[in-house]
Design brief:
Length: 179
């Protein structure tokens, strides 16, 4: 896809411009499951992944794509959301961030995408006390990346000869067989 880089940068900018409490934005590569092997990152963190759901060929190597964008929110906390816990508000700040992320994307459009809407919301197991949720969105993207290598033929200098031809004789059905 020709504009995937630009799409990611546009989404990343929405997060960094509107949510200063997010400390890290990156493409998703299951960083949370491999914390010892990964480059360190600060939390709260947002990660993006993209996949094609459906394609519609528009002709001349242009496609209209329905993409799924997954927006992961990772939040480090040992605070408890239980009523009366001393750090309940800190733990609940995670839910506020999920709401703010949705406000950045649901019902939106941009330079490189249109018709973005949330279609899913799920917790993701981390094996730790930290929180990880994914919100899924569908969006529309135009992709003309296949046109890059296309060399259209030009017919301006070609010669074409047209000859007058007589139509072929029509054979009647009873002339086909000896009876």
């Amino acid at each position: 896809m020709e504009n995937l880089k630009d799409l990611y940068l546009e989404h990343e900018k929405r997060i960094t411009d509107n949510l200063p409490e997010i400390k890290h934005v990156d493409l998703w590569s299951e960083q949370v499951g491999f914390m010892e092997e990964e480059h360190p990152f600060k939390a709260p963190a947002v990660f993006f992944s993209y996949r094609i759901i459906d394609t519609d060929d528009q002709g001349k190597k242009l496609q209209q794509l329905r993409l799924q964008a997954e927006v992961y929110l990772y939040f480090e906390t040992f605070a408890d959301t239980k009523r009366g816990s001393k750090r309940q508000q800190k733990a609940l700040a995670f839910l506020d961030l999920l709401t703010k992320i949705n406000a950045c994307f649901h019902g939106s459009h941009g330079k490189y995408f249109a018709e973005m809407r949330r279609t899913g919301f799920d917790p993701v197991e981390t094996g730790t006390a930290n929180l990880l949720y994914v919100q899924r969105y569908e969006l529309t993207v135009s992709d003309s990346s296949a046109q890059v290598l296309e060399n259209e033929l030009k017919f301006e200098s070609m010669e074409v000869q047209v000859d007058k031809a007589e139509p072929a004789a029509v054979v009647k059905a009873n002339d086909l067989y000896d009876v």
